[in-house]
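Folded chain entry —
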Amino acid sequence: MSSPRWVKITTLMFAILLLFQALPLIQANGVVRGGKLRVALPTEPPGLDPTTRSAAIIDRVLYNNVYQGMVRINRDGNIVPCLAKKWEISEDGKVYTFHLRKNVIFHNEKKLTASDVKFTFRRTKRETITVPHPEYFALIDEISTPDSHTVRIKLSHPSSIFLFNMARGDAVILPKGQKNLSTEPVGTGPFKFKNWKRGSSVTLTRFESYYAEDLPYLDEVVFEFIGDVNTRITALRSGDIDAIAYLSSPENAVALKSVDSIKILEGVTTWEVILAMNNSREPFSSSTVRKAINYALDREEIIEGATFGFGTPIGSLMSPTNPNYLDLSWLYSYNPQKARKLLEKAGYPEGFEASLTLPSSYELSLRSGKIIADQLKEVGIDIDIKKISWAQWLQKVFKNAEYDTTIIGHAEAFDISIYSKPDYYFRYDNQRLKRVISRAERETDKEKRRELYSIAQWIIAEDVPSAFLFSAPSLPAMNKKVHNWWKDYPIPAADVTEVWKEN
C-alpha cells in the first residue's frame, strides 16, 4: 500500500511537469501566444489596396493588421501614435510635423523612411491613381522631409479633421515603388499577407520583424468570406470558424447567447444605415416626395425587425458616438396620413413605382428593405426589390448611380461630408451645406465646430436627401476561447493585433 506522503510528492511532481509544459505558451500576463484564428466576414474585398478602393470590407481585413498610417484609431476611438511616435502642430494650425519611428520595417524587409510617406501622399494626387476620397488630401499644399524620419506637411488652411483623416484606412503608408498592392499588399503591420484565395479567404501570418516585439499574439489569421448568414452561424457553432466579426442578423445574437461555447460582445459602431435616394431621378429630385417617404417609415418597426431591437435611431448621417452628434431622430415621426398628403402635393396622388436595389450579401439591407417596401406600399409607393451582388452594387449604384433607391450602411467614421459632394452616389447638390461643412472642417475651436456640424445636420435632416434609419450595433460573436476582441467599432476594422486564443 502506497504511503500518503509519496502520493503527495508524485502529485506535486506531475503538477510541476504540466506547468513547465505550459510555460512556452502562457505569459506572465495570462496571454497565450501562437495559434490560428479563423474569422468570418459576409463579403469579399474587391481589392486589397484601401487607398484606391472605398469598400469598408478592405479595412475590416487590413486596417492595422497589415497596413498602418502615421496615426491610428484605437479601440476607444482615440487618435494615437502609430508609425509616427509623436507630432507637433504649428500655432496657425497649418503645419504638421511627424516624427517617424526608426525601427519600422515593411513586409518586403525595407526600412520605413520619410520618403515612403512622401511617396504615399503624392500618389493620391496623381491623375493615374483614382482615390475614393481625394478630399482627405486636397488641402495638402507641401510635403517636405527634413531628415529620413521626419515629415512636415503644410496645409492650405487649418483643418479640424486632418489628423482624423490621417488615421483612416485611406491614409495608410505604402512602400515606395511597390507594385500590385491591390492583390499583394505590403505594409508595416503586425501581420503580413500570405495569400488570397478568390471567393474564399485571405490569410495573414505573423510578421516576425514587427517593431512592437510583443505583438501580435497569433501566428496566423484567416478571414473567410461566407455570404450566407446561416452558414456563418453553423460554422461558428461547429467550431469551423472562431469568430464572426459582426453579426449582420442581430437576432442571431440572442440565439447564440444560449450556446455555452460562444460569447457575444454588445457595442456600438459608426455604421449608419440609410435608405438612399437618387436625387437626380424623378420623383426623388423632389424634397416633398423625399419627406413623404420619411413620414411613411415606421423606424421602430424597422429597427425591431431588422436589428432585433439592437439598433439606435438616427436623424442624420452622424454616429451617436461622434461628439458633434445632434439627435434629430424625432423629426419625422411615423405619419402615413401626412405622407399621402405630401405625395398629393408633389403631384403623385396615386403614388408611383420605384425600384429598391439591395446588395444580396448584407442581411441588414435585405431585412430592412422588405419592411420598408411594405410600409411604402401603404401610402401608394410600389417598390420592386432587386437583389444584386456586392460587386454589382459598387459598380451600378455607388459608381454609376444607376438606381432609384438603395439601403446601405455607411461605416466610415465622421463621413457627413459626403453629402457636400454633388457627384457622390446620392447625386445631392446643396451649396449651403457645402459651405457649412467647409467652415466646420476649418474651425479649430471645439464649440464653434460643434455648432457648425449641428447646422449641417439640420440642413440634411430638413432636406432629407436620404431617409436615415438607424445606427447598427456592434455584435461580434466568437468562441469563448477567443480573447481581447474589440467590443466597439469606432472605425470599420477587425483589428486582431492584440487578440489571443486559448488552446
Notes: The domain at 268-473 is CATH 3.10.105.10 (Dipeptide-binding Protein; domain 3). The chain has three domains: 45-57+66-171, 191-266+475-501, 268-473.
